[in-house]
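cron nightly-structures :: item 1 of 1
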Amino acid sequence: MPDRLLLVELALLGQIRQVDRVIWYRRYLARSTLGRQRGALFGARGAPWWTYLPWWFVHAVAIWRNYTGESTDELRLSKRQMLGTSARYARSQFQVVWRKRMLKMRTARIWAPFRRSRVARLESLERPVQAARGARPDQASIVSVSSPR
């Protein structure tokens, strides 16, 4: 996530130009995890408490703190304006995370019936048969479905 913070800070300072050649590539093709990133950045010292907060919140605080000091004349924004900018950034990034999480949950819910085990699928098919034969659904016996000859 540090890349997002860098891009936001660059955007605050002015226009960004994109070059048409590769100047950076990912060395690790494995999926990145927050635990691995904390270990790589902080090592044996251990990660500070604020690294366990949501990244969008930490980024918003970092933007506000970095650009509200006296030494940052390049932005020419007041503390109040920078607080509003940081709050809008936090809200927009939270919305991105929330939408992604909701989409993931909805997708999991849609595909859940197809991911069940074969036994669970057979049991779900046999429930209507049990009900048609007069068996109570809470009975533990499983009625097998046979094809007519």
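cron nightly-structures :: done
Residues 60 and 90 are 6 Å apart (CA to CA).
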